[in-house]
Here is the input.
Amino acid sequence: MTLEEHLAVHGPPPLLSGHGRRQDHERAERLVDEIGRSGLLGRGGAAFPTATKMRAVAGSRRRAIVIANAVEAEPGSLKDKTLLEAAPHLVLDGGVLAAQAVGADELIVCVSESARATVQSTGQAIEERRQDPDYAAFEGLSLQLRTVPGHYVAGQESSLVNYLAGGPAKPLFTPPMPFEQGVKRRPTLINNAETLAHVALIARHGAPWFRQLGTAAQAGSALVTLSGPLAHPGVYEIEHGASLSSLIEAAGGAMAGLRAALIGGYAGAWVGGERLGAIAMSNEYLAPHGASLGAGVVVLLSQEACPVAETARLARWLSDQGAGQCGPCTHGLDALATSVELIAAGDTQARATQRIQRLASLVQRRGACRHPDGAVNLLLSALEVFRGEFADHARHGPCDLCARPAELPMPVRPVEDGASRRGGSRR
Here is the structure.
């Protein structure tokens, strides 16, 4: 949407007055309270309460910075790119409102440098606003678009802080957390692009309107990137609590039998095909299956794919994507990937899966960031859901399906800033 089209559909946002030290504190607090009543949770993966984050930054009473995080380095995720290409002004409205609410005088929109269409549409939207004399949303606010390397950990919050400060796009050791000391050593609010779009809508329509959809624990709607053997894979907006079956039906139905679904992306968990009919898309319903919606990624795996070969390729890709700053990433993920590759090849010793579980216990909760934890979560989930297939490969070696093309998306992409020691991965 152009700015004119955006305003025709949504109307102007209820902008607060002033940025930074000129902030209208009373109106800012009312907006944050409304966000809190809405129950809005972050859409970047962690599902952290948005209002809690905003209060932490606003409470510092220092000049803050707001970052709209649309790097979206998760393979198989297209929701933020789609949102900024289709409705960039909704994200910008949310960013401006968030900046006013926390007393920020800078808004930085971060997009992956490889997402050229997203960079173009976002840049055009920013320029439209700068040229519109009747749209005073930028008074006292510095707005800029920054492109960020596209490797897996580049979109992590502290990676963005490090990169925007002139360093590599690698996670920083914490504390301090970004809300305490982020870009330019100032309190920094980092919100996912979809989260900010919801902020813009809640500011217009209110918390009760937002809560008309979703569940008590997870209100509102969410954007989900659905891929796999489907008639129409793509980005869908769902109500939290909607069934996975209804989402698949909206995409034209599965074109092949389904072996499993990966819920939550590459830090998520597998759910076996026999359970898919009972899955509801919100965290309270996914938790008994060891899964969460995460950043809204659902990848369906067909019966024609070998889950062991897919897991081996994915384990190696995740190992390659590490920042190489700590032992769990440098040594642990590599050892885990090697162990899975040995099982896939049938060249393994007895008790191979027990070795993976032992290595996983040494990696979990010991990394500088959450990347090792996410990789371990995914691998342990695969061992559980595909237990029979792993045992068969350990005994008999590769199966007939191993030679088929990979179904899980793993893009060929050079990994910048020394984040990998092996280079790109193969699709």
In short: The beta strands are 64-70, 104-112, 142-148, 188-192, 221-227, 234-239, 258-263, 269-272, 297-302. The CA atoms of residues 326 and 367 lie 6 Å apart. Confidence is low (pLDDT under 50) at residues 413-427. Residues 3-210 form a domain with the Rossmann fold fold (CATH 3.40.50.11540).
